[in-house]
Amino acid sequence: xxxxxxxxxxxxxxxxxxxxxxxxxxxxxxxxxxxxxxxxxxxxxxxxxxxxxxxxxxxxxxxxxxxxxxxxxxxxxxxxxxxxxxxxxxxxxxxxxxxxxxxxxxxxxxxxxxxxxxxxxxxxxxxxxxxxxxxxxxxxxxxxxxxxxxxxxxxxxxxxxxxxxxxxxxxxxxxxxxxxxxxxxxxxxxxxxxxxxxxxxxxxxxxxxxxxxxxxxxxxxxxxxxxxxxxxxxxxxxxxxxxxxxxxxxxxxxxxxxxxxxxxxxxxxxxxxxxxxxxxxxxxxxxxxxxxxxxxxxxxxxxxxxxxxxxxxxxxxxxxxxxxxxx
Length: 327
Known about the structure:
Blueprint: H1 11-26, H2 32-44, H3 46-61, H4 67-75, H5 87-102, E1 114-119, E2 126-129, E3 135-138, E4 143-148, E5 153-165, E6 174-178, E7 181-185, E8 189-194, E9 198-205, E10 207-212, E11 221-224, E12 227-232, E13 241-242, H6 245-248, E14 255-262, H7 263-271, E15 278-280, H8 283-286, E16 289-295, H9 299-309, E17 312-316, E18 322-326
Parallel strand pairs: 5-6, 15-18
Antiparallel strand pairs: 1-4, 2-3, 3-5, 4-5, 5-8, 6-7, 7-10, 8-9, 9-12, 10-11, 12-13, 14-16, 17-18
Helix pairs in contact: 1-3, 1-5, 4-5
């Protein structure tokens, strides 16, 4: 619900800002700094995300608009309505006209087919709006390939981590392939992280089916909200276990949250946000547990704080990487 009493900036300004940000999100050439500003705006108030999702719904509805009508929008801008409550829709029509003029909308003539590839650099996060109304939030150093067809929606998580908010469509299941596993849903919200030797799946809302990519259809694990699993390098899916979804997806707000996390896992996570890897020097050091919260854009602060929290020291190696050793 968009209520000016709930958002300090006011309803009209909120809708104008959301429309401008939505148009920028459709352009492939968006700088890291711009995306950081967008995520800061998105995190200012829950209604901001609601407005972006509403505009995505309007954007997706253009699949039903004939080519000739969209071309008319490009040639003849929509008249500004007299009633301010309709501003959102006037802005939406305007951004659609601009988008078509720039060649950003590619669904004409084939409303159910779509393909794209998105990636993030070190320290970058990216919010992606898909034509079906689904959303993808990409973590640092992540890459996805998207292929939508008439009867299926497929995404490959080539590397990194992504949070998926999937619009329900029973006729077109949404499948995420990552490593030796795949996740299938019709509509839900879940996080997938692909590492070198395994893939982790965590469900925030709804339910998903997880299976090894080459496993028989009868062999799968069902996950509901608050549960997760891992898929190993051989495609074996572990039994479901309880997870804290807020902690696992804290990266969306620029945070790294560790709650009794083994130091080997901490080092692996921190390495995703820095140019050189962070390693543990021994199994004993890797088994030490850490509970703390740090900023994802400042992993050096975590490394600097470790010797004050645990009985360890951090040693810098010749190649610039760092190793955590016992003190």
